[in-house]
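Final report, closing paragraph on structural work. Over the funding period we assembled a curated collection of sequence-structure pairs, and we close with a single example.
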Amino acid sequence: MPTFKSTLSSFLLIISLSCFSQDDDEKKETVFITHSDPGDKPAAEFIFGQLSVSVPIRANPYTDEIQEYYAETGEDYKPNVLDYIIPNGLSANIGFGVHYKSWVGISANTGIDWLATEKLVYAPVYGSILFTPQIWEETNIYMQAGYGWSYALGRGDLSGAYQKYRLGLIFDNTGSIFLDFSASDFPIYEYKYAGSISLGVAITNFGL
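Its predicted structure, as stored:
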């Protein structure tokens, strides 16, 4: 017949095992609750893409004739932008690169540029650096400088160093308007360089 001492020892042993089991279950449950799947964490977004379209412009060679016409006829002259500058082709560029917090980035770019008056089509390949410092809420300055090489299409081996500079505004880190200057270091007709000043728009995606 079990004694009181042995009965008490057995009872304490059962209590200890029960507490240990409960504590172990709580630890397992705690680990399960605090455990997070690495796949649930958002991926770091540091790649960006950019697509731009611009229109090269040039001085209207008929400005004087337009003004003389109105002077001779006596009609009221109401000048407009096209009296002084006219479109001179079309350019499209695309690039991909890496950025830091959407305000500085570097990218590799290419595209196709057409200058109508010069009857020139060329393809630039260049690297660029982009800065977008904020000036107002959801509005940043858009500055970009690029350097590379351009290849004239349909003109043999005509090619040369290429430079591109842009200045404009970017809105909500997405859409932008800009003034663009580009130049290719090869001669075309009486010009030492093939270059253009363009007005354009661009779409930038900093979340690729």
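The CA atoms of residues 177 and 201 lie 4 Å apart. The first strand starts at residue 47 and ends at 59. We thank the funder for supporting this effort.
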